[in-house]
Amino acid sequence: MKKRSVLILAFLLLCLNSCGIYSFSGASIPEQAQTLSVAYFRNRAPSVQATLSSTFTDRLKEYLVNNSNLSLIDGFADLQFSGEITGYSVAPVSIQSNDQAAMNRLTITVQVRYVNRFDSKANFSQSFSRYQDYDANLSLSSVESSLIEEITEELVDDIYQKAFVNW
Predict the structure, then answer these.
(1) Which domain holds residue 142?
(2) Closest to 48 measured CA to CA, from 134, 92, 94, 108
(3) Which residue ranges in the chain fall short of pLDDT 50?
């Protein structure tokens, strides 16, 4: 009985591995895809942060390469990501009894276009938005770089999930 269970498990693992489109991370990348491209995400938000475009674009490239076995190229690739940063804003979120904000919220929004040349049904154009709250007693400039890093990580993960895990 134990030997039979081991054989069945080995067979199932072999089947999953041989189809080439499933990974244990949950990613479903087309087997025939070998390349990806990430166009520069221009900052078109009403309020522009100087380094956000390059930070976001570089982090997206790094994440996609590190979490797949695809080669990053410029131009026409099997899987293509493009878009722009459409929002960068700070707003009070936790108002105290004296009408002072206890917390502020930095929100970043990106519009992403994804093209999968093997499966047009997987293509999408979608807006992704994430935020981080910070103490209103702190200046934005003192926490901005760490907030951008945290928000960028979340956005990049959301984009990866949408493109490859189909959530």
Answers:
(1) 30-165
(2) 108
(3) 6-7, 13-25
